[in-house]
Amino acid sequence: MPAQSIWTDVINIRSWHKEDLGYETQKPIALLERVIKASSNEGDIVLDPFCGCGTAVVAAQKLNRKWIGIDITHLAIALMRNRLKDSFGVDAEVIGEPVDLASAKALAHQDRYQFQWWALSLIRARPLGEKKKGADKGIDGVIHFIDEVSGTPKRVVVQVKSGHVGVNAIRELKAVAADEALGIFITLEPPTAPMQTEAINAGCYHSPGWNKDYPKIQILTIEELLHGKTVDMPPQTQTSVTFARAPRVSTKEPGKQLGMSSG
Question: Which domains does the chain have, with CATH numbers?
Fold first, then answer.
């Protein structure tokens, strides 16, 4: 029977579904595939100006359409980028996010929470809380990873600072990260010598899975992250369980992306 004006055969996303990413307004990919198939042909451009976790652009990529996705929050942009990478191996081009220190400072001045979410995305950390500190005091984001036979996830806790920083900030992070694997301090300003000394004095985390030591407290500047530096930890490609991983999606031919904008 042809589909009627009311569709009841597409099931809403549930927590046990493989495609669930934990995004509150996520739609089933089958729903977006139906809309795109009914309204476009292969090679056409699909625009989603409020794309959230990116179901429309994933469906467009799967169905060999070109696509443009737009969202105003860096939180959503990071989720879409990870989803496209997991599903298709696509490194999506993002237009409108900081590309140098000057634009990073501009974003921090405009909206420190957007800056925080963007900074966390540079190391694939999951934000805690929305426009406020997370449930864990003093933590802005986390990376979960598995590093031992028991399979129990361990945490890397992350703090992001866009303003003036001093040695007390590192002492605070050391206290917060005392029972965690690692503590990461991301700063827009260069760290002071006392900050670096305090971080070194925190010692190391020994990885049982890799039989290797990693600095317990690590300071990363935005400028360093923009030039490719990242967290010194067990390889995230093999150990990370930070984000729900989107299932791999196959296509007849790779779809062409035109871009993804942060609004």
Answer: 7-121+244-263 (no CATH), 125-239 (3.40.1350.10)
